[in-house]
Write a structure and sequence with these properties.
Elements: H1 6-11, H2 21-35, E1 43-47, H3 53-57, E2 64-68, H4 72-85, E3 90-93, E4 105-111, H5 120-129, E5 131-142, H6 163-171, E6 177-188, E7 191-201
Parallel strand pairs: 1-2, 1-4, 2-3, 4-5
Antiparallel strand pairs: 5-7, 6-7
């Protein structure tokens, strides 16, 4: 059976060396901290975590950080990073979110992962099911683009998003409120791609 995550598995070791990734995660986590009332009792899920940058940056803010990614290569990198910083207040999920069983989370964060979600409605619904009522989901991703962002790298189901359509999809699949801010750009192949941060409340 073909491994649908092989592309990510092969690139996991060098993932953080891609220009802009660490800078974006640093900015995104700062925005999450500004909007979210994170306490020492909070549970935060890093959805589509990749190498776990978002969750690791937040690991001292919360009681528990969940790292979820279906790529085994990415999860192995997460485990290595956690071992290096000697952190154990974590939960690891090497699955699609619809396949997981977990205690509900207060916050979900996701950076540049949502455009890889094949079943967008199902993914959003599954995230809502794994959250506490009143919890907030923070999504950083691309505004609609022409497909050039991933050209030559991989095929994705979403070439960014129409933000108004995406907010409606959240509202129709388990969330009571959805709003967004524009969030600067991401430099890829000498081109600036506009970003947003969507905040959805269950």
């Amino acid at each position: 059976m073909t491994n649908p995550y092989e592309w990510f598995d092969k690139r996991a070791k060098d993932w953080n060396q891609t220009p802009g990734k660490i800078e974006l995660c640093t900015r995104f986590v700062a925005e999450v901290r500004k909007q979210a009332n994170i306490t020492p009792e909070s549970r935060i899920l890093d959805f589509g975590c990749g190498t776990g940058l978002n969750g690791i940056y937040l690991i001292n803010d919360a009681k528990t950080i969940g790292f979820l990614d279906p790529s085994s290569g990415m999860i192995e990198q997460v485990k290595k990073e956690l071992a290096e910083i000697n952190k154990t207040n974590v939960e690891i999920y090497n699955q699609e979110i619809s396949q997981t069983t977990m205690e509900p989370f207060d916050f979900v964060v996701s950076s540049m992962a949502f455009h890889h979600a094949e079943d967008l409605k199902g993914t959003i619904s599954a995230i809502a099911e794994k959250m506490k009522v009143g919890g907030k989901c923070f999504i950083c991703d691309l505004h609609k683009e022409d497909g050039s962002f991933h050209a030559g790298f991989c095929t994705v189901p979403h070439n960014g998003f129409d933000i108004e359509e995406l907010k409606q999809t959240f509202l129709q699949n388990g969330f009571s409120k959805a709003e967004h801010i524009d969030f600067g750009t991401y430099l890829q192949k000498e081109r600036e791609y506009p970003l947003f941060v969507l905040t959805a409340t269950k």
